[in-house]
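All the exercises in this workshop are built on plain-text protein records. Sequence and backbone structure share a record, each on its own labelled line. The question running through the whole workshop is how a given chain folds. The record below serves as our worked example for the rest of this section.
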Amino acid sequence: MFQLYSKGCEHAIRALTEAPGNGEDKAFSVKAICQKSGLPEWFTRKIFQDLVKKGILHASQGPGGGYRFRVLPKNLSLLQIVETVDGSNCMEGCVMGLPICDEKKSCPLHRMWKRIKLKMISELRSTTLQELTEIIHQRKIKLHKIKTQEI
């Protein structure tokens, strides 16, 4: 089965969109984010440790501690998150799972996938975490309005 990115990457994006204040130097806890988003805490904690090691987040212990953005969400592209979690070569493999797939020896989907992949990478590069967070927030507001009108 083809996956755009790993489960870890999915969890990282979902968790980071729940971080408060769009990175205005406000600390946030994994526990609170996981409770809000329904993500497993142990797995999210592991992902956040990787994001700290790779310079996306900063962690501090003690009272007032938690995680803070080292790279502000307005400057953090979704592609940076994907590549931080899954590696910079994460989208290099064959879409059909073949061991060798390049311009000389390609799978039947190679040309189509190459065009789609370039467009997708461009979109991930040009969309920031802050933009995604705002889109999600607006959808939640709309959904809430629809639900309250139904009552």
